Amino acid sequence: MTAPTATTELKPPALSQGWLGWARENLFAGPLNTLLTILTVWLLLATVPAFIDWALLKAVWSAPTASVCREAAGGACWAFVYEKHRLILFGLYPFEEHWRPMLVVVIFLAMIGLSCLRRFWTPWLALYWIVALTAVGILMWGGVLGLTYVENERWGGLPLTLILSVFGIAFAFPLSILLALGRRSNMPAIKALCVIYIELIRGVPLISLLFMASVMLPLFLPTGVNFDKLLRAQIAIILFAAAYLAEVVRGGLQALPKGQYEAADALGLSYWQKTGLIILPQALKLVIPPLVNTFIGIFKDTSLVVIIGLFDLLNSLKASLVDPAWPGFSAEGYIAVSLIYFALCYFMSKYSQALEARLATGHKR
Amino acid sequence: MATGTGNLGPPQRSAASRLNWNDPSFRAILYQIIVLGLVALTVWYLVSNLQANLKSRNIATGFGFLGLEAGFGISESLVEYSPASTYGRAVFVGILNTLRVAVIGIILATILGTIIGVLRLSKNWLISKVCSAYVETLRNLPLLLQLFFWYAIITETLPSARQALNPLPGIFLSQRGINFPVPAFGIAFDLILIGVALGLIGAVAFRIWAQKRQDRTGQQSPVLLVAAGLILGMPLLGWLLGGAPTEMSVPELRGFNFRGGASLSPEFAALLIGLIAYTAAFIAEIVRSGILAVTHGQTEAALALGLTRGQTLRLVVLPQALRVIVPPMTSQYLNITKNSSLAVAIGYPDVVSIANTAINQTGQAIEGIALIMAVYLSISLGISLFMNWYNKHIALVER
Q1: B residues 128-167 near A, CB within 8 Å?
Q2: Angstroms from A297 CA to nearest CA on chain B
Q3: ipTM here
Q4: Which among B91, B204, B261, B267 is least buried, having the fewest CB atoms inside 10 angstroms?
Q5: pLDDT per residue as tens digits for the range B129-186
Q6: What range defines the domain where residue A287 resides?
Q7: What is the model's pTM?
Q8: What architecture does CATH give domain B87-184+247-394?
């Protein structure tokens, strides 16, 4: 019997080390696992190379006309997207004025980026937003500073989607806080009103609210008074978003320990002092991740204005798809617009996860 | 000490102190009166405008129009319908179409979502990454965009009926939708349905009996085996009683379209695929977080007690995970129902699209929209009631 000496140290088996060991652990652990891996690989091999072939290798990136593009391409015809990108991005906005909506998009993205940095989380941020939104209004409408006037029937594309979402969230959020506070109020009449409002709105689809805003609202206004379609859709989105945000805020209010409410009362703070200084700062921090998720939902839901005929990003794309000179490039168009929506939503959801991790103070219950 | 009267007893509320501005309950009542007054005033103002507008535009009011002839066709209907039918009938067809897509969508999205959610937790690196990619992509795109995409794929990219794709024998994919074979069994079909119903009742009865027996004697019965036997065996018996027919109605190309078999219209298929794919991504996340919410100690403790893997999952992990899963799942079911209203964008005749046509024809916007809202509110209420009942059924019984 020979005892192993220090010099004849045994190496671990090759199959449990390095990439082989990793593969064995993570891909081929057991027969079921192996079967799943083989199935997935087969599925990926059947789809991914074909898709890359279609979208990249055999794609045509520029072509003068649709027929040239279709003949040359064994795959995607991105020339369609290139040809129509101005229409998709800016809708029916006057062509020579496209720098204005472009600037609006830049302002929105810059402001959203700015608001994500904690360094700018001061009361000044509200002021910056007011300045930015005023600039957006001036740029889109024009009529002053030598800009030609553009009525908002002609607004469209990405700026319209951003306007509907940003204004929707900006107005719905304060309203939702009031609704959530009302729902938690001790006053029965106010509580009942808030409950009825929130549950009614959450019980019906957004489409029915948009229809309501487009066909029913004019009937409720005095003769002669009329809003344009954009404002009515914006109102519907605000009312809709407020109900959903209110439930998220209420979650935060309920998650706060009762001691916080009682301590504020014991200090002799008035209701609004208590709410503004003690309750809301803590409650809103608790619900930042679900709030951002709701924001993402609202951003996606603005695409429903297609149904009442506003030319947001999705509808501008539909408008360019029906051009008889470039027929049948739906897949390319939808993929291009998907990328824009995906980039914005994915950024927001990743940001909310990062924020949640950074704001965690160990009080999570 | 007993001489000090008056200010030691409970404070006497005089009429003056009841109207005191410093009394919170007085202020509360005042605020509520003000708010209610403002709401009432707004409603009165809007309604008076409405009445003036309706009069000046000569729009009829009331739900009388539901009895009139609709005069428009509906492309697919579960019940008999023709343009000569009434508006009421048309709306009923729409409600059935909404329920059809919602019910099938809920069932299939739950199955797909659960599979993806479980697979995302799998130790298999490749498969969990693929499932993550699925969830992240589908969740971050608007549903309407996805519906348009599927609809475009079906109507533009798929070949015409003559060159229909034939992935499996008897199943055809084309611009006309999906055609697939159905059994043509005649009387045996009814017998099979009766068999399914009897099998289900028998299985439930056996489960109750087995539970009682276990409570009484401690002996377990093979519930799963017997239930599976009943549910599969009874329909089989019905099929044999009906003469064991094997005929199938297979779709066949005749001219420009298919005859025989059953079909899903492109609109229905696009709506269903879109709703299922989108909602499954959300359900997968709910299932995943539900399973993660059950601490690992629970599994280890169950295994230490000698339960098998299957028993651990069924008796320990799942009941606890379900408590976390059911409430958010309810809101996903409500979302599917509400999102099915996007049908109007791709031309599937659901209740919104039919009510919209009725509004355009009669001008009675208020009644039409009230109808839409009433339908969705009742469906939502129904789902909520059922899910709350189920939630209570599985909730932790605290002693």
Answers
A1: 130, 136-137, 139-145, 148-149, 152-153, 156-157
A2: 8
A3: 0.86
A4: B204
A5: 999 999 999 999 999 999 999 998 888 777 777 777 777 777 788 877 788 777 777 7
A6: 157-359
A7: 0.83
A8: Orthogonal Bundle (1.10)
